[in-house]
């Protein structure tokens, strides 16, 4: 029991959410470099390629039966946003109760934040900034849920269960980290009041809505490629054209980065959100490069001037 208690006390001293995102960053960065660049000159194990690649980019070589059993339908992406919608709604309710109704946090919220982000957390942003950040994150999550349920057209592609777990834990960690450094959520009693809107809050909000618009339009264009060409096209892929697809292969991933950077502009001094944003950028870049290479290999007339994710740069 003493060993168990020591381990638990050590875990409580660490910010588990930040450690999780750092681990994800390292794995996706190393894995992405191996798949996107090293694989060209050095063969990689089939089991690794099958687990790492998914959807239209899925590994087409030797298939490992065990890894196959650990795969779920790609359309289960919607599950990320269902669970995330529940989590962010709970966060909004707690924020409303604390900041507007002046109702103290229930013990389970404090305990959860203590375990996942350490009991030594301190506010790094004011109440207005924290509220605006969580509202914009909620809009992103609710919007993505709607798009997954009513806009996107998924093929029968599959993803590894590890990708599925990462999708769920990403939103849990993002919401928890955002709240962990918000006034009043550190467990200390203090007077909480809203301040006036600041310049960077306006800039960040504009950036976020720019990202919302790009992502929604890009996803509608991708869905239209299949929906407008009959039922059989659900299992086929066509070269996207129009909009930002003329300059990048994955404008929807570029938009995801834009949204998180926009929230970061608002939460500037929020260390936890900086880690979340770095993870999102790392993940979107590596996946976009995989998509870009797949397009180049699949469509021989693929425009050579298109970049993977960042217009005119990458």
Describe the secondary-structure layout:
Blueprint (H helix, E strand, L loop, with lengths): L1 H12 L2 H21 L9 H7 L12 H5 L1 E3 L3 H23 L7 H11 L9 H24 L7 E3 H20 L18 H29 L23 H16 L4 H28 L16
Antiparallel strand pairs: 1-2
Q: Explain this structure to me?
A:
The protein has 314 residues and is mainly α. It has eleven helices and two strands. The chain has helices at residues 2-13, 16-36, 46-52, 65-69, 77-99, 107-117, 127-150, 161-180, 199-227, 251-266, 271-298, and strands at residues 71-73, 158-160. The protein has a two-stranded antiparallel ribbon. The longest helix is centred in the C-terminal third of the chain and has 29 residues, at 199-227. It starts with a helix and ends in a 16-residue tail after the last helix. The model has no long low-confidence stretch (mean pLDDT 90).
Summary, kept brief:
62% of the residues lie in helices and 2% in strands. It has eleven helices and two strands, in the order ααααβαααβαααα.
Helix content: 55-70%
User: Which value, in Å, is the CA radius of gyration?
Assistant: 21 Å
Outline type? globular
Number of strands: 2
What is the average per-residue confidence, as pLDDT, rounded to a whole number? Answer: 90
What kind of sheet is the major sheet? Answer: 2 strands, antiparallel
Structural class: mainly alpha
In terms of per-residue confidence, which ranges show pLDDT below 50 for 5 or more consecutive residues? Answer: none
Number of helices: 11
Series of H and E elements:
HHHHEHHHEHHHH
Strand arrangement across the biggest beta sheet: 1-2
Strand content: under 5%
Amino- and carboxy-terminal Cα gap: 52 Å
């Amino acid at each position: 029991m003493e060993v168990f208690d020591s381990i638990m006390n050590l875990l409580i001293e660490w910010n588990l959410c930040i450690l999780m995102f750092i681990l994800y960053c390292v794995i996706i960065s190393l894995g992405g470099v191996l798949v996107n660049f090293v694989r060209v000159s050095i063969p990689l194990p089939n089991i690794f390629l099958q687990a790492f690649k998914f959807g239209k980019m899925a590994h087409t070589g030797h298939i490992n039966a065990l890894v196959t059993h650990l795969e779920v339908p790609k359309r289960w992406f919607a599950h990320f946003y269902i669970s995330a919608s529940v989590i962010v709604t709970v966060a909004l309710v707690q924020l409303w109760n604390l900041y507007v109704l002046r109702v103290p946090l229930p013990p389970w919220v404090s305990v959860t934040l203590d375990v996942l982000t350490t009991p030594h957390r301190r506010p790094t942003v004011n109440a207005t900034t924290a509220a605006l950040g969580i509202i914009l994150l909620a809009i992103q999550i609710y919007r993505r849920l709607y798009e997954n349920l009513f806009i996107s057209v998924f093929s029968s592609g599959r993803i590894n269960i590890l990708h599925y777990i990462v999708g769920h834990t990403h939103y849990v960690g993002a919401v928890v980290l955002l709240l962990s450094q918000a006034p009043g959520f550190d467990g200390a009693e203090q007077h909480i009041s809203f301040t006036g809107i600041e310049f960077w809050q306006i800039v960040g909000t504009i950036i976020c809505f720019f990202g919302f618009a790009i992502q929604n339009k890009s996803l509608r264009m991708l869905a239209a490629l299949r929906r407008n060409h009959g039922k059989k096209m659900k299992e086929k892929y066509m070269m996207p054209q129009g909009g930002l697809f003329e300059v990048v292969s994955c404008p929807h991933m570029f938009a995801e980065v834009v949204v998180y950077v926009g929230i970061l502009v608002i939460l500037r001094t929020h260390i936890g959100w900086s880690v979340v944003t770095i993870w999102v950028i790392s993940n979107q870049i590596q996946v976009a490069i995989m998509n870009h290479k797949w397009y180049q290999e699949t469509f021989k007339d693929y425009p050579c001037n298109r970049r993977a994710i960042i217009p005119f740069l990458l």
